[in-house]
Hints:
Order of helices and strands: EEEHEHEHEEEEHEHHEHH
Strand content: 25-35%
Number of helices: 8
Amino acid sequence: MLILGIESATQQVGAAIGGHEGVLAAAHTSRGRRHAELLTPTIDFVRRSARVELDEISCIAVDLGPGLFTGLRVGIAAAKVMAQALRVPMIGVSSLDLLAFPVRHTNRLIVAVVDARRGEVFHAFYRQVPGGVQRTTEPQVATPEELASELMARDQECLLVGDGALRHREVFGDCRRVELADEGLAHPSATSLVQLAHAQALREEFVAPWELTPLYLRKPDAEINWSTRHEGPAA
């Protein structure tokens, strides 16, 4: 089985192809908010690098979020169109799971943190388990200060990973027993997406394209701004 992974939840756009033999090819690029412009060339580059034709793909995996609304919309829409055209099933994986997976070998509490803009972050907590990580909290949205307060209350050795942790490093830097992961791990990885999706594929945890639902956690910024502007004064 060959899986095409599509990742676009943050500033970075990525794609990877792999299966039983591991990841055959992967590519990531980041050029601002040009997800729609970059995604198709990235997928084609990965396909050619892996020497795979599209009709050889057996499953489409995609990052479900949380993340940037525009990036998620572009990636999920493209993944659904390809899955329907190829008549193959889909697998969805959270962006927070993708951040936590590459640091699965640490014994510390893992906190995946995605920059949500508007002074907020999306986050979830993970612990190491044989072969990977296990999420111990549901994905949430909070201010960096609220998350920092929770970390201090837990008073555990923590490893924060993700662009949200790096953007607000001045807030988390004051937390004792907390370390920030390297910048190279700041974005969800399409390689991790294929690896995690392959494990789900072996368990036949597929969904049809019309059943796949993005994890936004918050209204789009444009909708928030519209509501704010058009709310009348309290009676």
